[in-house]
């Protein structure tokens, strides 16, 4: 059964394999059309020099009409970057993943956006409500209604 | 000498008249920004291209497979905006018989 | 100096002997009577020379019996026997001579009848010398043993040959139903002389040989009917009656005879099966060629294999034959496929579990996989290419979806363990139909679907009367096999055909045109060789008019012509004649230009129509030269013959038939892939330049680093093979290197 999402994701995957990921992004695994993993690092001057993070994309069958669920992986090997929009459980507060999602965006585009979000960070700190959010956070960040305070 | 053509079994391809002749030359052609399938292909929910899976033009000049765009506009998240420029979507009236764009050769 | 004691002892012994011989008769009368009896008895027993012309002395048998009695009473029978045997030994030279005389004769004339005479003669000697039965069986046995020991020691090796011929003749007479009552006597004689026991192996070999030659004579090349039944009847009618002589001697009833013959009988039966099995094994390749007219032979083979374990021989023989006769460059791919399909069918009859098939098919499958046109052949036969009558697909076989190899289901009540000779990679394929089996030569069915599209495109573009019912039916059939989704693209192609007709009807109703285009959906048709050719003159006008009407009818769409595709039917009106021709567009474009101008050079023409090669242009011009419409005045300069020149100035219209089998220039999957592979050639070249030689899988691994490379190792293999044919690379022991 081919859903809308699998057709689109197959195209994106072919593109990634043919042309490669954007600089600093590496495809770790894309074994199905439900979840993909990437490593992400910030090249050049930034507060995250030398740090490598792991991103998880989860797609539902309606992708790209509906946005993918994107978060940093937090386990024994990797952590979420310390950033005012990134919770310690890996959830990301970014409008592009919420109310500013557009079906013309793609996995690569999301990666690049997150890369520039980190690159432009001025001070490494957690969101102010981090502890409260993390305690009650749902597994899927898409279930959270973030309040996009700036940008 | 006079040459009379009695019968000519020719072959042609049809293209959507997007008014964009520059991209007409390349192999894949333009793709729908939502499903990434060429315009002359069909959207993920269709099996037959062409009249069964038409394009939709926005006043903003962006073009999508109609089915793809309607699916997007059907979601609350779309806020009825064009996926490309986030301007409110207004479907363009097509100029039916624009003689300047009937053939591409 | 004998002491008195010794003397007394001797005297006592003597007295004892005397008493025994004299038997208390008065005086020495007893002794005299014994003496007479001894003389009579030894005289009577003494072996006689049969050749002695003097008549045999007549004895009063009663007297003889009395004499034996006397000797017996005197306990002198053993001594008499010794004397007899000693006499016999002295006469043995008579037997020796008898044998020598007859064997010399046999060796000179090779007539087994000499052997028969000898045997009868020996029986005569034996009977003549034989002591009377009155003397008891011990003496007879001793005599027989002595006689045979001597006889066997003097029979020369050629005797075996002779007796074999003699015995074979008895069997042949039974087979031809011309039994000779003499045969019974002969076998009796053999028995008397114990020749049957001595030559038992030789007699059995006669049976084996006759069975072997009979099986070969009657069964070789006869495959339509099963032969085993007939052979068994023959064994019962011909071999068993003969076997009774040597192997059921002394049987008093049928049951006893049966028991006695059981061992040798089952050996003969086994030999019959083994011979047939070997024969069919050696004939197997041709049996497969003849299938289904060889079903009988296959049933026989199945039965034989159950009795005789020659499965491995069958696999080896068949693989060897296939290698030698089928898997060589001279064989047509179609023929290889046909033979493969027949092999599948035949071996399923012989061995339903499929182990033999698996072992035999493997090299065929590997070979087919490496042939570039295999898929095309399979696909052509799937849709029935019309040219060849015998399709791979049996019309009676129901069309069914492709089957994937299934895992073993051990909870299936019909599950059986795999046959003992199944290898570790054996996969049972009993449930698969032929097409599934063939398609499974390749790892994916995608290649087939692609090739199907190419084939369909060629067919559809070649359709002239607009009738696509046949192609539609094919697509429906293929949908069942390959699934709806795989055939979706073909559906679009078919719909383009019907849409084109509908559009054309509309356009013609608005503004009649000689042009009737097929309007295709790009992305859904296989790559069509592209061309930037421009049609001149009235052709261009027709194109523009049609395109305009089209866009009126379909305002959202425009047409983009593929001018190099299709065909044009033209009428040429010249000063002295009118011609009709059915030509490709390039020919039409050129002749249109000649209506503007009578003389053109090739270069000028090419300039006017745009991107065509000079070769293609010259070929197109040649078409008109052949029709005496154009003439090449000097190299590259052509002139229109407004008035015919040369031998055929008749004005009757000529129709140039399209060249048979010329299909629209749709790139085959193979061509498309070759085109794409060219990009990777640079990588391969670099690799081989730097590393010398590499095996295929290393090249594959390294190519995976090249952007967008998604070929299978099989596809790479096909490409390398093509490169080898072009002399770019060479291969030795699986290592590829640059150059020859």
Draw up the topology in text.
The complex is a heterotrimer of chains A (151), B (105) and C (740).
Chain A: H1 4-19, E1 25-29, E2 35-41, E3 52-58, E4 69-72, H2 107-119, H3 130-136
Antiparallel strand pairs in A: 1-2, 2-3, 3-4
Chain B: E1 2-9, E2 11-16, E3 55-57, E4 63-65, H1 66-73
Antiparallel strand pairs in B: 3-4
Chain C: H1 4-22, H2 29-45, H3 61-73, H4 77-109, H5 112-129, H6 137-154, H7 158-175, H8 181-192, H9 195-198, H10 200-219, H11 228-247, H12 254-290, H13 295-307, H14 311-325, H15 333-350, H16 355-370, H17 374-382, H18 434-439, H19 446-462, H20 469-482, H21 488-510, E1 518-521, H22 537-553, E2 557-561, E3 567-573, E4 578-583, H23 585-596, E5 599-601, H24 602-609, H25 614-626, E6 630-634, E7 637-640, E8 655-656, H26 669-691, E9 693-695, H27 696-703, H28 713-725, E10 729-732, E11 735-738
Parallel strand pairs in C: 4-8
Antiparallel strand pairs in C: 3-4, 5-7, 6-7, 9-11, 10-11
Can you put this structure into words, describing what you see?
The complex is a heterotrimer of chains A (151), B (105) and C (740). With 151 residues, chain A is an alpha+beta fold. Chain A has a single domain (4-139), classed as Ubiquitin Conjugating Enzyme, CATH 3.10.110.10. Helix content of chain A is 24%, strand content 15%. Chain A has helices spanning 4-19, 107-119, 130-136; strands at residues 25-29, 35-41, 52-58, 69-72. In chain A, strands 1-2-3-4 form a 4-stranded antiparallel beta sheet, with helices on one face. Chain B is mainly beta and 105 residues long. Chain B has a domain at 29-92: Zinc/RING finger domain, C3HC4 (zinc finger) (Herpes Virus-1), CATH 3.30.40. In chain B, 8% of the residues lie in helices and 19% in strands. Chain B has one helix at residues 66-73, and strands at 2-9, 11-16, 55-57, 63-65. Chain B has a two-stranded antiparallel sheet with strand order 3-4. In chain B, a hairpin with a 5-residue loop joins strand 3 (55-57) and strand 4 (63-65). The longest helix of chain B is centred in the middle third of the chain and has 8 residues, at 66-73. Mean pLDDT of chain B is 81; it is low at 96-105. Chain C is mainly α. Chain C folds into 6 domains: 19-165; 199-309, no CATH class; 317-402 and 425-443, no CATH class; 446-517; 527-663, Cullin, Chain C, Domain 2 (Ribosomal Protein S5, domain 2), CATH 3.30.230; 669-738, Arc Repressor Mutant, subunit A (Orthogonal Bundle), CATH 1.10.10. Chain C is 61% helix and 6% strand. In chain C, helix 7 (158-175) packs across helix 10 and helix 21 (488-510) crosses helix 22 (537-553). Chain C is rod-shaped. Residues 649-661 of chain C have low confidence and may be disordered. Chains in contact: A-B, A-C, B-C. At the B-C interface, strand 1 and strand 2 of B face helix 21, strand 1, helix 22, strand 2 and strand 3 of C. Strand 1 of chain B pairs antiparallel with strand 3 of chain C.
């Amino acid at each position: 059964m081919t859903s809308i999402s699998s057709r689109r994701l197959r195209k994106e995957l072919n593109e990634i394999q043919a042309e490669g990921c954007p600089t600093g992004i590496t495809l770790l695994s894309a074994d199905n059309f439900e979840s993909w993993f990437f490593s992400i690092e910030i090249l050049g001057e930034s507060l995250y020099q030398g740090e490598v993070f792991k991103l998880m994309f989860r797609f539902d069958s309606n992708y790209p009409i509906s946005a993918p669920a994107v978060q940093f992986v937090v386990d024994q090997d990797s952590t979420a970057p310390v950033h005012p929009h990134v919770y310690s459980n890996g959830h990301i507060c970014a409008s592009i993943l919420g109310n500013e999602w557009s079906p013309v965006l793609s996995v690569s585009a999301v990666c690049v956006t997150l890369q520039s979000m980190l690159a432009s960070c001025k001070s490494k700190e957690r969101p102010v409500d981090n502890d409260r959010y993390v305690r009650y956070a749902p597994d899927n960040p898409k279930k959270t209604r973030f309040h996009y305070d700036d940008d | 000498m006079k040459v009379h053509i009695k019968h000519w079994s020719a072959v042609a391809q049809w293209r959507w008249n997007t008014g964009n002749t520059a991209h007409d030359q390349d192999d894949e052609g333009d793709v729908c920004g939502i499903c990434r399938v060429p315009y002359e292909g069909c959207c993920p929910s269709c099996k037959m291209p062409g009249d069964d899976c038409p394009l939709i033009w926005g006043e903003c000049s962006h073009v999508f497979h109609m089915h793809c765009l309607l699916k997007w506009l059907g979601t609350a998240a779309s806020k009825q905006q064009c996926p490309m420029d986030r301007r409110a979507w207004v479907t363009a009236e097509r100029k039916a018989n624009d003689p300047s764009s009937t053939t591409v050769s | 100096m004998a002491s008195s004691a010794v003397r007394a002892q001797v005297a006592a012994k003597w007295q004892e002997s005397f008493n025994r011989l004299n038997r208390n008769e008065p005086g020495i009368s007893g002794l005299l009577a014994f003496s007479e009896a001894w003389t009579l008895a030894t005289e009577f027993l003494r072996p006689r020379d049969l050749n002695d012309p003097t008549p045999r002395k007549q004895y009063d048998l009663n007297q003889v019996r009395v004499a034996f009695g006397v000797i017996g009473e005197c306990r002198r029978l053993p001594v008499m026997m010794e004397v007899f045997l000693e006499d016999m030994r002295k006469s043995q030279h008579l037997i020796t001579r008898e044998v020598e005389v007859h064997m010399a004769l046999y060796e000179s004339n090779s007539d087994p009848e000499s052997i028969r005479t000898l045997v009868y003669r020996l029986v005569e000697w034996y009977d003549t010398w034989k002591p009377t039965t009155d003397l008891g069986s011990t003496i007879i046995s001793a005599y027989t043993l002595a006689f045979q020991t001597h006889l066997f020691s003097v029979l020369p090796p050629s005797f075996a040959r002779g007796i074999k011929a003699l015995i074979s003749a008895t069997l042949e007479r039974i087979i031809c139903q011309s039994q000779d009552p003499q045969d019974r006597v002969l076998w009796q004689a053999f028995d008397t002389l114990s020749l049957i026991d001595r030559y038992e192996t030789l007699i059995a070999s006669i049976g084996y040989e006759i069975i072997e030659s009979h099986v070969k004579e009657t069964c070789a090349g006869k495959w339509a009917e099963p032969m085993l039944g007939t052979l068994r009847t023959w064994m019962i009618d011909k071999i068993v009656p003969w076997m009774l002589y040597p192997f059921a001697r002394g049987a008093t009833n049928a049951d006893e005879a049966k028991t006695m013959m059981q061992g040798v009988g089952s050996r003969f039966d086994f030999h019959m099966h083994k011979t047939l099995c070997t024969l069919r094994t050696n004939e197997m390749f041709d049996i497969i060629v003849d299938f289904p007219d060889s079903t009988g032979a296959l049933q026989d083979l199945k039965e034989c294999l159950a009795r005789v374990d020659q499965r491995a021989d069958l696999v080896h023989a068949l693989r060897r034959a296939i290698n030698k006769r089928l898997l060589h460059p001279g064989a047509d791919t179609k023929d290889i496929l046909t033979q493969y399909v027949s092999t599948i069918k035949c071996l399923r009859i012989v061995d339903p579990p499929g182990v033999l098939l698996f072992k035999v098919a493997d090299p065929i499958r590997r070979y087919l996989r490496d042939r570039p046109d295999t898929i095309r052949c399979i696909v052509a036969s799937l849709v029935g290419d019309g040219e060849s009558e015998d399709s791979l697909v049996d019309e009676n076989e129901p069309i069914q979806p492709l089957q994937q190899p299934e895992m073993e289901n051990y909870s299936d009540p019909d599950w059986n363990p795999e046959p003992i000779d199944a290898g570790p990679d054996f996969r049972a394929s009993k449930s698969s139909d032929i097409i599934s089996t063939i398609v499974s030569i390749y790892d994916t069915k995608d290649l087939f679907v692609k090739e199907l599209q190419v084939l369909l495109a060629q067919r559809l573009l070649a359709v002239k009367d607009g009738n696509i019912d046949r192609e539609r039916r094919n697509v429906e059939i293929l949908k069942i096999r390959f699934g709806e989704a795989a055939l979706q693209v073909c559906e679009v192609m078919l719909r383009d055909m019907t849409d084109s007709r509908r559009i054309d009807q509309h356009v013609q109703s608005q503004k009649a045109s000689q042009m009737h285009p097929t309007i295709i959906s790009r992305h859904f048709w296989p790559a069509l060789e592209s061309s930037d050719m421009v049609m001149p003159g009235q052709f261009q006008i027709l194109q523009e008019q049609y395109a305009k009407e089209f866009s009126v009818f379909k305002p959202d769409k425009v047409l983009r012509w593929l001018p190099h595709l299709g065909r044009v039917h033209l009428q040429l009106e010249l000063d002295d004649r009118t011609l009709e021709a059915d030509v490709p567009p390039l020919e039409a474009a050129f002749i249109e230009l000649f209506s503007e101008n009578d003389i053109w050079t090739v270069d000028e023409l090419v300039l006017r129509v745009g991107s065509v090669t000079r070769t293609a242009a010259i070929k197109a011009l040649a078409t008109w030269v052949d029709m005496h419409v154009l003439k090449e005045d000097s190299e590259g300069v052509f002139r229109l013959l407004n008035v015919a020149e040369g031998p055929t100035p008749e004005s009757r219209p000529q129709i140039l038939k399209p060249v048979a089998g010329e299909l629209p220039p749709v790139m085959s999957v193979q061509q498309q892939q070759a085109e794409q592979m060219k990009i990777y050639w640079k990588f391969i070249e670099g690799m081989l330049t730097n590393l010398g030689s590499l095996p295929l899988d290393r090249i594959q691994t390294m190519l995976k680093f090249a952007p967008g490379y998604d070929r299978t190792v099989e596809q790479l293999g096909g490409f390398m093979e093509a490169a080898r044919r072009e002399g770019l690379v060479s291969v030795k022991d699986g290592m590829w290197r640059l150059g020859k």
